[in-house]
């Protein structure tokens, strides 16, 4: 008896879908390995987080949530949550910088700082900063790619971000090696926070070490604050009415918040575009560039967790959160529930830009970060030719998951 063969109604479409899934899963597999290399427990926590909706309590860590709506509610709630007590980043940095930053990091002093610095980073100032700090470095990298050479995008990102720190903090200009050195010093400072996921109290030794780094990096701030033109960040801080102490605190914040995150995002932008196959779509339709940047920020979520301390008892979705407990927002998990990296994914009002946080601490440097990613995108694909990855290494034991090496070259 002849065997009835079930005919696939659309074999070609099915094959394309399978292929796309396989390519997509390569992007996801690299992202997962990247997270695991940074902190071995991270993928498990972020995966467990899928169950943390709306909110659940884990031993040692406290409350965790990966629900975008609850996350935003917590981040917007300045009455019941704080980042100044154990579990919050303000608690961590106050030990290094001194109690005066408590005023600056949260509460009335923070409101004043945010109000005064409202126009500090905009699309226009972000683009101007990128042009001023990066054009030479980008031109050299472009020439190397054009000549068919291999470029390490991870190292290039560190060089660029080091150059941006030099620009933002009014440090003396440096060559590319000098930019990388500045990045490395900033990285060392950020490493102070390694291990703070479960406890933000620092040892005396870590505090001393971190203080000496801050002093080195902000040594040019007083002079820049007094003399720099209003086309610089320090000059604008003065013009906006910030005191020198506020400016020094802000400079430290910019360094801590805007270095590893930005470098991580740039490397992952390159990797995601190649691993997902989306670079071809972007070359065919460059108007999708903004979507590519947004999708990178969403899928990579370079700040995968945001911590807060509970300042006062309150209830969320029937759960009682008590003063003194801590809550962790799993931004990576929350953002990745929307699906795979797809550069034409429409803006999701549900997620908004949770990769930059929300509420009163929403990333101050978001427009600059977007401008930085836009410049990297232009470098990688601006000439309409694809790139390929020659070799990659994931960064080990780092606060912010990132490639330590990502060798790329132009295809063909
Ligand atoms: C892809 C790059 C970046 C990502 C993913 C990112 C993410 C974030 C997130 C999630 C927060 C909120 C933290 C919290 O609520 O505790 C934050 C805050 C902040 N970010 Fe960014 N950031 C990036 C780049 C930058 C850059 C380039 C700068 C400036 C140079 C910057 C400056 C800041 C500052 C000053 C804050 C603190 C705001 C406050 O407490 O009021 N960030 N960032």
Could you characterize what this model shows?
The chain is an alpha+beta fold and 412 residues long. The protein has a single domain, classed as Orthogonal Bundle (Cytochrome p450). The protein is 55% helix and 11% strand. It contains 18 helices and 10 strands. It has helices at 11-38, 42-48, 68-76, 89-97, 100-105, 107-116, 123-146, 153-168, 176-190, 204-217, 221-227, 233-239, 244-258, 260-276, 278-284, 289-300, 331-336, 366-381, and strands at residues 56-58, 62-65, 81-82, 151-152, 305-310, 314-316, 319-321, 326-330, 387-394, 403-410. The chain has a 5-stranded mixed beta sheet with strand order 1-2-8-5-3. The protein has a 3-stranded antiparallel beta sheet with strand order 4-10-9. Strand 6 and strand 7 form a beta hairpin. The radius of gyration is 22 Å and the shape is globular. The model is unreliable at 1-9 (pLDDT under 50). The chain binds protoporphyrin IX containing FE (HEM). Protoporphyrin IX containing FE binds at residues 83, 89, 114, 253-254, 257-258, 261-262, 265, 297, 302-303, 306, 355-357, 361, 363-365, 368-369.
């Amino acid at each position: 008896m002849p065997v009835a063969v079930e005919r696939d109604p659309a074999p070609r479409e099915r094959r394309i879908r399978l292929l796309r899934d396989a390519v997509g899963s390569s992007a996801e597999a690299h992202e997962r390995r990247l997270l695991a290399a940074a902190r071995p427990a991270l993928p498990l926590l972020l995966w467990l987080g899928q169950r943390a909706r709306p909110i659940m309590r884990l031993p040692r860590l406290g409350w965790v949530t990966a629900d975008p709506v609850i996350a935003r509610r917590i981040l917007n709630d300045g009455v019941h949550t704080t980042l100044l007590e154990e579990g919050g980043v303000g608690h961590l940095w106050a030990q290094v910088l001194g109690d005066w930053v408590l005023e600056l990091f949260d509460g009335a002093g923070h409101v004043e700082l945010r109000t005064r610095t409202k126009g500090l980073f905009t699309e226009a100032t972000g683009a101007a900063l990128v042009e001023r700090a990066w054009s030479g470095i980008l031109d050299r990298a472009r020439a190397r790619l054009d000549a068919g050479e291999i470029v390490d995008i991870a190292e290039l990102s560190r060089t660029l971000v080091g150059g941006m720190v030099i620009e933002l903090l009014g440090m003396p200009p440096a060559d590319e090696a000098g930019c990388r050195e500045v990045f490395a010093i900033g990285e060392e400072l950020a490493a102070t926070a390694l291990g703070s996921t479960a406890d933000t109290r620092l040892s005396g030794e870590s505090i001393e070490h971190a203080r000496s780094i801050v002093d080195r990096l902000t040594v040019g701030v007083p002079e820049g604050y007094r003399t720099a033109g209003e086309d610089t960040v320090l000059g604008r801080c003065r013009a906006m009415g910030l005191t020198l102490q506020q400016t020094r605190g802000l400079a430290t914040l910019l360094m801590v918040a805007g270095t590893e995150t930005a470098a991580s995002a740039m490397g992952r932008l390159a990797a995601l575009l190649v691993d997902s196959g989306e670079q071809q779509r972007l070359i065919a339709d460059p108007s999708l560039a903004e979507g590519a940047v947004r999708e990178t920020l969403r899928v990579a979520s370079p700040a995968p967790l945001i911590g807060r301390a509970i300042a006062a008892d309150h209830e969320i979705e029937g759960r009682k959160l008590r003063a003194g407990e801590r809550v962790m927002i799993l931004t990576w998990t929350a953002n990745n529930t929307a699906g795979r990296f797809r550069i034409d994914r429409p803006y999701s009002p549900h997620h908004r830009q949770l990769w930059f946080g929300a509420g009163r601490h929403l990333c101050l440097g978001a427009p600059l970060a977007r401008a930085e990613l836009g410049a990297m995108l232009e470098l990688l694909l601006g000439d309409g030719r694809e790139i390929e990855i020659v070799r990659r290494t994931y960064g080990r034991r780092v606060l912010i998951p990132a490639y330590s090496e990502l060798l790329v070259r132009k295809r063909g």
